[in-house]
């Protein structure tokens, strides 16, 4: 399983929330094997803010 930095996670989450790009499109854009981590990051960010990442 790949490890992603907090900065990268925040960048992807903000792009999802601001630009309304889908999980799958973002995972392809950033060459991630799955969109599942992005979904988890967005949920965590919405629940706990930056500290959730």
From TrEMBL:
GO molecular function: sequence-specific DNA binding
Gene3D superfamilies: Winged helix-like DNA-binding domain superfamily/Winged helix DNA-binding domain (1.10.10.10)
Signal peptide: none
Record-annotated Insertion element IS150 protein InsJ-like helix-turn-helix domain positions: 8-53
Protein name: Transposase
